[in-house]
Design brief:
alpha+beta, Phosphorylase Kinase, domain 1, globular
């Protein structure tokens, strides 16, 4: 059964958390229904309910505990964790928004810290491992589906096919990639990054995954600073990394469109159809 605000509030109450009747529902996420609510003592809480069951929930909670001591920013501290509900006190800050320009180096520093963590203990937590061949095969499958279902210019298809076939253009060293660094998942105060939420997409995989969203929403100059901050704090910037990031970023409508086809999300299919039909 799909989650609802009522089912989430009831489960929170059954787990000892009594929340007021006033709440705000956020239905924008692909994977979770989110509820903003306030406890009797005035503490604001975030409730998340998975739209589909998944074992990754346990791994996400363990990962948060693992990375928390290393990061210069806050991450969620889960107080309720069941198969159908996550609840934690709301972190400080507000979602960055699509026009955010970082006021300091915390984003680049945080990504560098994550990429430097040893991966064996993280793999033991249950975080998925996606080696370069696995990633390429998965993306090739998505592209084959998109070619069948959407009208995509030949030049665009060839560019993606060449990139996916060129194994030497893919990094071989896998890292803890937070993934999905969308502005809505970054909490800021006065332009400064203070927190990261929604870690369900974390994998041990391509470090470029943590630059795809910033590539879209940062100005070119701000993106240059992000890569410089990342490198200054120990991140590895290899020759061809920027092009690799740009190609992964351009592939987003393929992923979104095929996800929409698989889950019945007509809005995602329509959005992908429009974007994929463009010449570049």
């Amino acid at each position: 059964m799909s989650p609802s605000a009522e089912s989430m509030l009831l489960e929170a109450y059954e787990n000892g958390l009594e929340l007021g009747n006033r709440h705000e529902v956020d239905e924008s996420g692909w994977d979770f229904l989110v509820l903003h609510a306030t406890a009797a003592d005035g503490t604001p809480w975030i409730l998340r309910a998975p739209r589909r069951p998944g074992e990754y929930l346990k791994a996400e909670g363990a990962l948060l505990d693992h990375v928390r001591p290393h990061l210069p920013i806050a991450v969620p501290d889960w107080r309720i964790h069941t198969d159908t509900l996550i609840a934690y006190p709301r972190l400080p800050g507000m979602p960055a928004g699509g026009t955010w320009l970082p006021a300091d180096d915390r984003l680049g520093r945080s990504v560098a810290v994550l990429h430097a963590l040893p991966t064996e203990p993280i793999e033991a937590l249950g975080i998925p491992v996606l080696d370069p061949d696995d990633q390429r095969k998965w993306l090739i499958g998505r592209l084959e589906t998109a070619i069948r279902e959407f009208d995509i210019p030949d030049e665009k298809v060839r560019r993606w096919q060449d990139w996916l076939a060129a194994t030497d253009r893919w990094p071989q060293d896998m890292v803890l990639a937070r993934g999905d660094l969308h502005p809505q998942h970054l909490l800021v105060e006065g332009g400064r990054l203070v927190g990261m939420i929604d870690w369900a997409d974390a994998t041990i995989s391509d470090p470029a995954l943590d630059f795809i969203d910033p590539y879209h929403y940062l100005t070119p100059a701000a993106f240059d600073r992000l890569l410089a901050d990342y490198e200054r704090h120990g991140g590895h910037v290899w020759p061809g990394m920027r092009e690799h990031i740009a190609l992964r970023a351009s592939f987003g409508p393929v992923i979104g469109g095929t996800f929409g086809l698989a889950t019945g999300r007509d809005d995602l299919v329509a959005e992908a159809r429009e974007e994929l039909s463009r010449g570049r």
